[in-house]
Amino acid sequence: DMINDTSVAQASASIALASDAASEAVFEHDVVRNLICRQARYPDIATPQDWYMALAYTVRDRMLARWAESVKNYALHHVKVACYLSAEFLIGPQLGCNLLNLGLEEEAREAMDSLGQDLDALLAIEEEPGLGNGGLGRLAACYLDSLASLEIPAIGYGIRYEFGIFDQDIVDGWQVERTDKWLKMGTPWEIIRPDIHYYVSFGGYTRMWNDEQGRLRVEWVPGRQVKGVAYDVPVQGYRVNTCNVLRLWKSEAVESFDFDDFNAGDYYEAVEEKVVSETLSKVLYPNDEPESGKRLRLAQQYFFVSCALQDMLRLMEVSHTPVERFADRFAAQLNDTHPSIAVAELMRLLIDERLLSWEDAWSITQRTFAYTNHTLLPEALETWSLPLMQSMLPRLVEIIFEINQRFLDEVRRALPGDEGSVARMSLIDEQGDKKVRMAHLATVGSHKVNGVAALHSDLLKQTILRDFAAMFPSRFLNVTNGVTPRRFIMQSNPGLARLLDDTLGEKWRTDLTRLDALADHADDATLQEAWRAVRRENKAKLAARIGNITGIAVPPEMMFDIQVKRIHEYKRQHLNALHIISLYQRLRRDPTLDVAPRCFIFGGKAAPGYDMAKLMIRLISGIAEVVNQDPATRDRLKVVFYPDFNVKNGHIIYPAADLSEQISTAGKEASGTGNMKFMMNGALTIGTLDGANVEIREQAGADNFFLFGMTAQQVAALQQSGYRPGHYLEANEALREALDEIAQGRFSRGDKAMFRPLLDNLLNADPFLVLADFADYAACQQRVSEAWRDEKRWARMSIINTARSGAFSSDRAIKEYCENIWQTRAVKIDLAAP
Ligand code: AZC
């Protein structure tokens, strides 16, 4: 009723708006109130963790009022909602970005100050939810930030892993994994919704029957069921009232398990089933490429996707919208193939449970889904063994078969007699053990398919999805990745943000392309001096942190040359390492050698089962151990392996980089997003023509980018013609010496066997052409050294890199998704003043 409605709106607005400049006292009061009412502590005995929680709840309250208002508006206006389906959301620490987006940072700082607490210290104790591996998961988080900031109705759907990506320790130079404990102290950022839950079936069999209307129906009689419960994380837009939601599913055992119906056998087996149910959302698979055949991984994928789709159908129901209009109300993006079983699951829900015809269901499905591919690496393309899938998801396999049959009929009509194309495009790989090709399922079930950088999208059409691109050319497009400037400039580099405000005004904060105007001032001596001052401070901060963590003293005047990302052969950390060794050798030989003093910083996790990547970490540690204590090079060369690279550590690392290493073998890195974070913060890039590097160089200008290496075409041609790493070894003495020094045990405390696998691999196979690109890389690094000597030139190049980074805002990317794929529009959320 009216009176009630008004009072609710007023209450909500007053909670949300309690953060006006005039209400610092209210904020402070709310913190103390939360300290008592949520932590049951008075200020005099509260721990820093208590204060953190009290502050976080105070911030959260203001978001929840906005969230309630956003939800009400979406429902009221029957708007289309973008649903981002992703097995990973690497959202990073929450308090700082929520304060920033709400515009509450100063207020919070002052309030905590008068309570005798230091805001920065409280920010530092937050454990980040590591619900992702790397680029793909972090991209999903940047996109949620942009969606909310652009006021687009959106829901992120994923998994609430109890254990996220492991924490990394370095012990004796080796990576040691420790389980992540992000939930140990509880998290203030989630709202549990026990009322929002769904049942997900596994195993069993299907049977056909005729219903009362004489329709032939299929029933899936599952072997067991799992319950998915919604855990909601609010996603606050920047300086707008929009607050969207990230809905993560936690698996639980169903309350009442009927042994007879489910043939569970006996009591103990049933108990075991319960344990298995709760295992589903227990842990994130720590690989940045799929681990084949892992039953639990497939179960996780189906689990969260089924919960998400059931949730979307429920939202249709509560807003009294007929299911036929599903695709008008939802756009669902498949973040890689991990959620691609959604294509078959939506068909199942529409046909078996909502009784739609195949044709109607298929039309809805194709109009709803779109698929983003994130990799061309053949070993990373997800397939599932058909027998495994049949035993776990029998009904879904039937539907996949039907999709395939109808699709291949279409192929045969288009390409009569071309059974080669039929076999290549089939959703089932029939060679050897039969497998379901998830990328094919995603492509066939979507109306749009995109790659994540221009080069990658082109290669996608030329290689793994070539037949599909030929048959459905208008289905394919590119959306180059982007990153959020809120977290990666404003939050993590406040000094730069202030300088940008002073130079350009504040409009760049909501329209990053405005940074462009900075280029006009690139030679301005005053700006250059201020620019250098900001960078010096950022570097001093990182140097201090490195000192604390590793004990290595790094002078902030050195060039900070940084490579942080997952450790992988295709990313070629070992190319960087070989160059450092050869530089070290040159410096020892000629102590007067005129090269820029440099600190090489590495960070990144290796998949626990990826021995070669772990050996690469050991090599870098070994080089650091030798180089850092050699008096001959002490002031000129430092090497650091920064342990446990994650979002939080990224905040201090990106703003301190002079040089960003983006040196993957051309054609292998789909986009990269770290490259963009570095660029925004004023680092220059040394890189190959790979992924988004190509566009970064276009934007920055060739003069402001250090390019080296083979092109993707040259890489393909060389590999085709029979690559011989030995050939490059013979031609390059520095390279021979570097490899030889490793072989002699120089970086393994005399152990000549330790790096044998790495050396053998480079000498005999070198699948990522490290040796072929070495000479050009070393020459390019020489140019970097020379450029560094000219302070003014370097400052100019740095300023121009930031100036041209506007194109790499995730706001730009999200606008492209909205316009070209989702057809979703912004909805303004107003808060009635109390
Ligand atoms: C990554 C790609 O390797 C990277 O190039 C890209 O920038 C990023 O996705 C976002 O598009 N892929 C992954 O991280 N993949 C997984 C499974 O983690």
TrEMBL record:
Record key words, sorted: Carbohydrate metabolism, Glycosyltransferase, Pyridoxal phosphate, Transferase
Catalytic activity, reaction form: [(1->4)-alpha-D-glucosyl](n) + phosphate = [(1->4)-alpha-D-glucosyl](n-1) + alpha-D-glucose 1-phosphate
Keyword Transferase: yes
SUPFAM superfamilies: UDP-Glycosyltransferase/glycogen phosphorylase
One Gene Ontology molecular-function label: 1,4-alpha-oligoglucan phosphorylase activity
Cofactor: pyridoxal 5'-phosphate
Pfam families: Phosphorylase
EC number(s) recorded for this UniProt protein: 2.4.1.1
PROSITE patterns per record: PHOSPHORYLASE
CDD domains (alphabetical): GT35_Glycogen_Phosphorylase (cd04300)
Superkingdom, taxonomy of origin: Bacteria
Database matches in InterPro entries: Glycg_phsphrylas, Glyco_trans_35, Pyridoxal_P_attach_site
NCBIfam families (alphabetical): P_ylase
Annotated family: Belongs to the glycogen phosphorylase family.
Described purpose of this protein according to its UniProt entry: Allosteric enzyme that catalyzes the rate-limiting step in glycogen catabolism, the phosphorolytic cleavage of glycogen to produce glucose-1-phosphate, and plays a central role in maintaining cellular and organismal glucose homeostasis. Phosphorylase is an important allosteric enzyme in carbohydrate metabolism. Enzymes from different sources differ in their regulatory mechanisms and in their natural substrates. However, all known phosphorylases share catalytic and structural properties.
Protein name, as recorded: Alpha-1,4 glucan phosphorylase
Organism: Franconibacter daqui
Taxonomic path: Bacteria, Pseudomonadati, Pseudomonadota, Gammaproteobacteria, Enterobacterales
